[in-house]
Specification:
- By secondary structure, this protein is α/β, with parallel strands linked by helices.
- The protein folds into 2 domains: 99 residues, Urease, subunit C, domain 1 (Roll), CATH 2.30.40.10; 287 residues, TIM Barrel, CATH 3.20.20.
- The chain has an 8-stranded parallel β-sheet. A 4-stranded antiparallel β-sheet has the order 4-13-14-15, with no helix packed on it.
- A hairpin with a 2-residue loop joins strand 2 and strand 3.
- It is globular and about 70 Å long.
- Bound molecules: N-(iminomethyl)-L-glutamic acid (NIG) and fe (iii) ion.
- Fe (iii) ion binds next to loops.
- N-(iminomethyl)-L-glutamic acid (NIG) binds next to helix 3.
Length: 403
């Protein structure tokens, strides 16, 4: 039997992430001497090897987990912004970067110059590399088109890649308000109206979520509320970039709109945290961005104490999180943010699925999608160490081996 044909695996250690079999001594619902089997893309068995008659035929691997879920990425970019990093390291901030033609508008120029095919190919290759790191579901935002036709071009490219069975599953997000394009610098309100009246109605068919960048030097709470509540009325879920550089009340807005996640949160008040907890809005933590920017961590202890669900994502983007690696984000979440390894891993599986509104993955249980990673390491703590290479041996998406 070849691995490509394998309808299952056995392993000395399998993490279900199933709360029904988790407790204080076994926080990730681990099963020892485990076996997992798939049928028609779903998990048909998960349990002890002794309880599955065919288990001895399955390949033996060191560790099994659900596929990782990256709940916040700007993975659909083209071009390169390596020059910005040098400016930043020399002490320049986003204003200097912008003055020299960099930042989000630089990615917007590159996207405008690329064909839809090029955008699609670049995204597919990037997602294939993410897959090889163990990521089986990936949220992908637009937000580099900025102008209506270009945002739609970006969303169409994302939708095309989403049909490719060799890529992770994609959750597309319309990042409606990311930056005011140069053409509209003197007509900010006109731009926001165009996003609402022109881009949004056409983006709805291509996206599951709407997002907006609510921050100082980005968009205000009122500007974001206008677009996000319209998007919600059209059927999109809400997630927001909040408090990356300053607390302008974005967490409270996320809670008010019933957002599934508020992302970044380096700057958030006690009131904002309470609002997130009361609304059941998850905190999506992006440690690669705060590492790149040299920032202090979000108030993790307060978020934890308030009972806000913690998610960890890569923020993959060419400016503030130049990485494709969710495992790197997990390593930094533990080392820089002080998450326990268990919290970090739950944040990239079960909690990540929930904050994307997905109830068929993020755990290994009968009936769930067969999105599974067989790792080359014997214990999950090695998954949150900063190794720098992939630790995934085999990656299964919907029951099929893809990496
Ligand atoms: O999540 N904060 C805004 N957006 C991105 C940065 C995108 C970019 O620089 O291209 C972020 O960090
Ligand atoms: Fe982001």
């Amino acid at each position: 039997m070849t691995l490509a044909m394998a309808p299952g695996f056995r392993s000395p250690r399998l993490l279900t992430f199933d709360p029904r079999i988790s407790d204080a001594d076994n926080p990730l619902g681990a099963i020892e001497n485990a076996c997992i089997a798939f049928e028609r893309g779903r998990i048909s068995f998960v349990g002890n090897q002794l309880d599955h008659p065919g288990s001895q035929l399955f390949p033996l691997v060191p560790l099994l987990t659900p596929g990782l879920i990256d709940a916040h990425t700007h993975a659909c970019w083209v071009g390169s912004r390596h020059d910005e990093y040098a400016i930043r390291m020399a002490g320049g901030d986003y204003r200097e970067i912008a003055a020299r033609g960099g930042g989000i508008v630089a990615s917007s120029r590159a996207l405008a110059a690329a064909t839809e095919d090029e955008i699609e190919r670049t995204l597919l290759h990037r997602l294939r590399r993410m897959l090889s790191l163990g990521v089986t579901t990936c949220e992908v935002k637009s937000g580099y088109g900025l102008l209506p036709e270009l945002e739609l071009k970006q969303l169409r490219a994302i939708a095309k890649v989403a049909t490719n069975r060799d890529a992770p599953s994609i959750v597309p997000t319309f990042l409606a308000l990311h930056s005011v394009p140069l053409e509209h610098q003197l007509d900010r309100d006109g731009y926001i109206s165009a996003v609402r009246d022109n881009t949004l109605p056409r983006a709805v068919a291509l996206a599951q979520f709407v997002d907006a960048y609510v921050d100082a030097n980005a968009f205000t709470v009122d500007e974001a509320r206008g677009i996000a509540s319209n998007a919600r009325a059209l059927g999109l879920g809400v997630r927001l970039h909040v408090g990356q550089f300053a607390d302008v009340g974005g967490a409270e807005l996320a809670a008010e709109l019933g957002a599934l996640s508020a992302d970044h949160l380096e700057h958030v008040s006690a009131r904002g945290i309470d609002a997130l907890a009361a609304a059941g809005t998850a905190a999506c933590l992006l440690p690669v961005a705060s590492f790149t920017l040299g920032q202090n961590p979000p108030p993790i202890a307060a978020l934890r104490e308030a009972g806000v669900a913690l998610v960890v994502a890569s923020d993959a983007n060419p400016g503030t999180a130049p990485t494709e690696s969710l495992p790197l984000a997990l390593a930094l979440a533990v080392r820089l943010y002080g998450l326990t390894p268990e919290e970090a891993l739950i944040g990239a599986t079960r909690n990540a699925a929930r904050c994307l509104g997905l109830h068929d993955r993020g755990m290994l249980q009968i009936g769930a999608r067969a999105d599974v990673v067989a790792w080359d390491v014997a214990h999950e703590y090695a998954l949150v160490q900063p190794w720098g290479t992939s630790k995934a041996r085999t990656v299964i998406v919907g029951g099929a081996r893809v990496a």
